[in-house]
Amino acid sequence: MASVREKKLKRKEILERKKAIDQLIKAASAHSDHLTDFPPFRRFHRDGLSVCLESGRGNKLSPPVKQYTQTLLKVNMEGPFGSEWAEEEKVKRREMVSPDARYIFVHEVPNVVANECQDKGPMVGFVHYRFTLEEEIPVVYVYEIQLESRVQGKGLGKFLMQLIELIARKNHMGAVVLTVQKANLSAMNFYTSKLRYTISSISPSRVNSLAEVEKSYEILCKTFDNEAKAMLEES
Questions:
Q1: Where is the N-acetyltransferase domain positioned along the sequence (predicted)?
Q2: What's the pTM value of the predicted model, to 2 decimals?
Q3: Residues 120, 143 contacting (CB under 8 angstroms)
């Protein structure tokens, strides 16, 4: 009888944990504007570049914004994806308008004063992220971080990823996870060397290193607690 009782308690514990995690993700996804939690991150001014950030959702993109994000994505990613791009583009376009998609839009501005953005100008980049589960760990999954070439190399990418990590921690996520094409050497170096992300234990190269057909991408992660580290970093 003790064994049966223990199994019931264990099952109850598992179900309660699952419910708690589901509620975490639901609450994080329901937040209308995560930037309100981090006022200093609403603007960025460095090396002659001034931008302001605003939040958005995939199912509320205006036609001009949808067109911009799709165009910038193609400009930046068609090369790294190579022959896989035609099919990948279709997948990404569906992902980008999902109700689960959350956005940070980056607008260039002539002036940034205090916490206020004046004369919001053209968009120069965006981040597409979601709150989801990986190996039963609640995570922020960064689907896209895309910047126009003229605003790269000024620290803006690092700034945006630091913001994503703050959003993840604020909402009690265990990690930030993202996918990088192996052919995109500059991105791989950016994440692993500058931001100290590691190749996850769920990445194809670690799940099945003897696979006949090698995958063209790696899954990277940065974990924030021991449980996430055990599930997503350690094999």
A1: 63-220
A2: 0.91
A3: no
